[in-house]
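Q: Entry one of two.
A:
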Amino acid sequence: MTRPGMSARRGGGQYAQSGLEVVMDAGKIVEIGTPAELIANGGLYARLASLQLMA
């Protein structure tokens, strides 16, 4: 059973200034967007963010 995971890494240059997050699950990119967009989409990022708030 694979547990959902999230990885976000900010690099240099334009990406770091864009405010975008990259969400990965099992080594694949599953979502890209700003934190507000990712939460509004209700995907993996939103689920993990809500779990973190409950902790």
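Q: Entry two of two.
A:
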Amino acid sequence: MNKKFDENEHQNGINPNPGELIPWELKEKEEEIVGDKDIIKEQWYSIEKLAYRFVWAIVTDF
């Protein structure tokens, strides 16, 4: 079952760490993960780093 992102999740004690936009804990709750969770988590953090850097590049350019 696919759970929607809760906009008030930060009030439940899950906050993104520096360098993340969406914490892995939230993404992991969205739907069942099929396969090796460690590989998927590693790839998730790689993509998160790129997204975070992109956002900061846009913010600092303007």
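A: Comment on entry two: The CA atoms of residues 40 and 47 lie 11 Å apart. The mean pLDDT is 81.
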